[in-house]
Design a protein that fits this description.
The complex is a heterodimer. Helices cover 26% and strands 43% of the residues of chain A. Chain A has helices spanning 4-22, 26-30, 61-73, 77-80; strands at 33-42, 55-59, 86-97, 101-114, 117-132, 135-145. By secondary structure, chain B is an alpha+beta fold. Classes of the chains: A alpha+beta, B alpha+beta. The complex binds FE2/S2 (inorganic) cluster and fe (ii) ion. Residues 207, 213, 217-218, 362, 366 of chain B line the site of fe (ii) ion.
């Protein structure tokens, strides 16, 4: 039996995270993380040993901060030609629930518009969330793009 | 049809399109030129298809492209490498899909012909109807000529061209230096980033020895590293150079101190690798081993551009595959050491992710610039692409090669002269 109250809580948290990313509130997004949190976009969707394999992104706190700086600095030409992203998340399922953490998997449909070309990046996203008083902090976010094992184009935002 | 081809041969005048100091803009966008490049260049020279570490044991395979040809690099039961055309001898289906893996044989999905790792045709379902028609030994997967140098595997459709080592020529010395970066362990492919950009393949070819763009395009990358590292990447005013190595190859030395990674092992350990050095020392590695790994971990101080499809670029192989006249696929192949400490390979992976690939802090900005080149080159009615930077300040290198400043267009001029030679052959 699904714990609907917990499901509601995590869904609300993840929806806010998605909204922050689509509306480029990147500094607020950084605050959603635990200090030890890891953001990963693997190449092989079946991979689980992220530290010892090549990923598209493997960001601990410092790299997340640098990634956000890069996006906000205006110095990177590729980040200037992507219009706002639009993402929707659904199909939430709680995979694990303990006293300290909850692990949730969901589907993400993200569309980007670069140089007038609309492109979509569907993905399975898994969140490991640390429980805090009445809220969560992200301990791990893994974005498995549907086409990650093929070739991509520039991604000038945060998935 | 024959008449059309004749007309084309008269109208496309490569001699006048590739000048010593500029090339005609149609080289980026004319589909006829593209088709001819596939034939005259990609079907007629040594094309990089992989590194030996990608097929480490019996049954290992990887796929690669030579122009439009899909090929398989495999290792057979006797541990011999083969480069095979990925095309069933029956009615042409590919017999292997995916980037790399392990298999016992290659099985065609259409009618079930089975080929062994060396390409021999082993099994045909219901063979009766072929009785007296052919013998299995007549129809192995088509095998390509290939040769290796320092573990780099190159293949060719042309059985008559010079041996690989003669083709590499002056580039061999630089490949020898490049493979020193695995820190005392055998060089090993750790994975690759793959992406496409809407532009001609030669735009990427040019870029490997284009230091001029670095501080502009990669400003956000430089902002993301510590001051000491930013200083190292501030190489435009440094002592580097670009050298024409012959046969279209060139080398751009950005960081002269990091040309030979076996030297200067006593240099102070850079700030950004201090933690790594401590970790390796704590694991029990000797001071000499630690220094060797730390010095190698960031890669070599140069980009070696090998005509036409691969570069030994600082810390990775850059591989290009032309898709169409205005689309190119790029692979950035991450490298490490076979059996090296996990901390060493992890640092190499993290450095690769920092700059390379579709989410790196460098590659997307390169791709944006190249896309804009392709788009901009459509404007005008026959303009030129300039390659004359540094042409009045040339010197002769100690190896006797034409050499220019680090931000000169010497490497691009070298590549286009080889391009012209092959296109007019
Ligand atoms: S096409 Fe391969 S068996 Fe027929
Ligand atoms: Fe670049």
């Amino acid at each position: 039996m699904t714990d609907l109250s917990l499901l509601n809580q995590v869904t609300a948290f993840i929806s806010i995270e998605a909204d922050m990313l689509d509306f480029e509130e990147y500094n607020a997004w950084l605050d959603l993380w635990s200090d030890t949190g890891v953001y990963v976009v693997p190449i092989d969707p079946k991979e689980t040993d992220f530290a010892n394999t090549l990923n598209y992104a493997y960001d601990k706190a410092e790299m997340r901060r640098l990634r956000v700086n890069r996006l906000l600095s205006g110095e990177a030409v590729s980040t200037q030609t992507t219009d706002k992203t639009v993402r929707g998340l659904s199909r939430f399922r709680i995979l694990e629930d303990s006293d300290s953490h909850v692990t949730v998997r969901c589907a993400m449909y993200l569309s980007e518009c670069r140089h007038g070309n609309l492109k979509s990046y569907p993905a399975d996203v898994t969140y490991k969330l640390m429980k805090t008083d009445n809220d969560f902090r992200i301990e791990e976010k893994v974005i498995r793009l549907q086409n990650s094992d093929a070739y991509l184009s520039s991604i000038g935002y945060i998935l | 049809m024959t008449e059309m081809i004749d007309v084309k041969n008269i109208t496309v005048d490569y001699e006048s399109m590739v000048r010593p100091d500029k090339v005609h803009t149609s080289l980026y966008s004319d589909p006829e030129i593209f088709e001819e490049e596939l034939d005259k260049i990609f079907n007629n020279t040594w094309v990089w298809v992989g590194h030996e570490s990608e097929v480490p044991e019996t049954g290992s395979y990887k796929t690669a492209m030579i122009g439009r040809h899909s090929v398989i690099v495999s290792r057979d039961r006797k541990k011999n490498i083969h480069v095979l055309l990925n095309r069933c001898r029956h009615r042409a289906a590919t017999v292997c899909e995916g980037k790399r893996g392990k298999t016992k044989s290659f099985m065609c999905p259409y009618h079930g012909w089975g080929y062994s790792l060396d390409g021999a045709l082993r099994a045909i379902p219901k063979p009766e109807e072929y009785e007296g028609v052919f013998d299995k030994s007549e129809l192995p997967l088509i095998s390509l000529r290939f040769e290796t140098y320092q573990g780099l595997i190159f293949a060719t459709f042309n059985d008559d061209i010079q041996p690989l080592e003669a083709f590499l020529g002056g580039a061999k010395k630089w490949i020898d230096l490049f493979v020193k970066q695995s820190g005392g362990f055998p060089l090993k492919v750790l994975g690759d980033h793959r992406f496409r950009f809407p532009g001609n393949w030669k735009i990427q070819l040019e870029n490997t020895t284009d230091a001029y763009h670095f501080p502009i395009v990669h400003k956000s990358f430089v902002s993301s590293v510590d001051e000491q590292t930013a200083d190292i990447f501030d190489f435009l005013d440094g002592e580097g150079h670009v050298e024409d190595l012959g046969n279209g190859h060139s080398v751009m030395v950005m960081i002269p101190e990091l040309v030979d990674l076996d030297k200067n092992l006593d240099d102070p350990i850079p700030e950004r690798f201090q933690a790594l050095a401590e970790e390796l020392a704590a694991e029990g590695h000797s001071d000499a081993e630690v220094r060797r790994m730390v010095r190698a971990v960031g890669g070599s101080g140069f980009n070696l551009n090998l005509f036409p499809n691969v570069a030994c670029s600082m810390a990775f192989f850059r591989v290009l595959a032309p898709v169409s006249v205005n689309e190119t696929e790029i692979h950035h192949v991450a490298l490490g050491g076979e059996g090296a400490p996990a901390a060493f390979n992890q640092m190499r992976l993290r450095l690769h992710e920092h700059f390379q690939g579709p989410m790196g802090f460098g590659t997307p900005d390169d791709a944006e610039a190249w896309e804009r080149v392709q788009k901009g080159s459509q404007a005008g009615t026959g303009e030129w692409i300039l390659l004359n930077r540094g042409q009045n300040h040339l010197t002769t290198s100690p190896d006797g090669n034409v050499s220019g400043a680090v931000c000169s267009e010497t490497g691009m001029r070298a590549a286009y002269q080889q391009w012209k030679k092959m296109m007019t052959a």
